[in-house]
Design a protein that fits this description.
Helices cover 50% and strands 15% of the residues. It is α/β, with parallel strands linked by helices.
Length: 315
């Protein structure tokens, strides 16, 4: 039986790619409707994350020209994760299933067919996973692999090489709505739902036009959010390191006392200087890690809205 599909596409200053993206997605959805794999009520929903270019005007034009398109406008830029969540929660009331994709056409839209097949087989969540990273630079491959391995080491349940291309059923979306974190990291949050899930592999393409919205600084911040939102192991590691340093300091203290009793001169200036700087740096790093967690508690206790929707076009 055909289901109503909403394709959720977060957009931030995507005027260069939006025309081509809408064209490709429209062709795909029209074919799926013709083949009766999805209903005629299905939509392509663009979520404008407070863009400063013509993105929203283009979305409004698309919606006025074709009822296949829908639009959500956030009141200001809230970040890709919040924009994606806004689209998912808006679509939840009308869609049987949603598929989220990037606006830059890097996600292969043909993976939609396989995702729908997996859903028909009973899977509530289907993750789109990159089959390889050969097109990435060495630096990006290395940092991405390090990031995923680090998350796994810290005990975070995450799908390797998965970004935000995924299918979610209405049941999964309703479960996701129960999570109220302000610090969003959907790649780690969705696996916590626990419903039956599987993977679809696809080849990620080059960006059609424009530039990446995730420079190195933003990627680093995103990685820190992912780690601190789902694992307290860094705090436990600080404690373990403190215990080790305490034991080492006791050994050094005993050694110093023995040397003093024996009347030997202890040079020690280099060792003392290095120790002071090392421990001082270690303390600053430890305070920084603790501060990151305290900051997250601060934001969570305020319970501010994760996004504010200014306008919705979905007729």
């Amino acid at each position: 039986m055909a289901k109503t599909l909403y394709v959720i596409v977060p957009c931030y200053n995507e005027e260069e790619v939006l025309k081509e993206t809408s064209k490709c997605l429209k062709q795909k959805c029209e074919k799926l409707i013709k083949d009766k794999k999805i209903t005629k009520k299905s939509k392509i929903m663009f979520v404008d994350d407070g863009s400063s270019d013509e993105t929203w005007n283009m979305i409004m034009n698309l919606c006025s020209e074709d009822s296949l398109f829908a639009g959500v406008k956030l009141s200001k830029n809230r970040g890709q994760q919040n924009a994606l969540l806004a689209g998912l929660m808006t679509a939840k009331e009308k869609a049987d299933i949603t598929i989220s994709m990037d606006a830059d056409l890097q996600d292969d839209i043909n993976v939609i067919d396989e995702m729908l097949e997996k859903n028909e087989m009973g899977y509530e969540i289907v993750y789109g996973v990159r089959s390889s990273r050969q097109k990435d630079t060495f630096f990006k491959r290395f940092t991405a692999k390090t990031f995923y391995r680090l998350l796994e080491f810290l005990g975070v349940d995450i799908v390797y090489n998965h970004a935000d291309c995924r299918l979610m059923s209405k049941k999964a979306l309703e479960a996701l709505a129960n999570y109220q974190e302000v610090n969003l990291f959907l790649r780690g949050l969705v696996p916590l739902i626990g419903y039956k899930s599987t993977i679809c592999y696809y080849e990620r393409h080059e960006r059609f036009a424009g530039k990446s919205k995730y420079p190195l600084k933003k990627m680093f911040s995103f990685a820190v959010d992912g780690i601190t939102s789902f694992s307290i192991k860094p705090l436990q590691m600080i404690m373990a390191l403190g215990i080790i340093i305490l034991l080492v300091s006791i050994i050094i203290m005993i050694y110093s006392l023995i040397v003093k009793v024996m009347g030997m001169v202890v040079p020690g200036w280099t060792f003392l200087t290095i120790s002071i700087w090392f421990l001082g740096g270690l303390q600053m790093v430890s305070i920084g890690i603790i501060g990151e967690y305290v900051g997250k508690i601060y934001y969570e206790t305020k319970k501010r809205p994760r996004y504010i929707i200014e306008e919705v076009i979905d007729e």
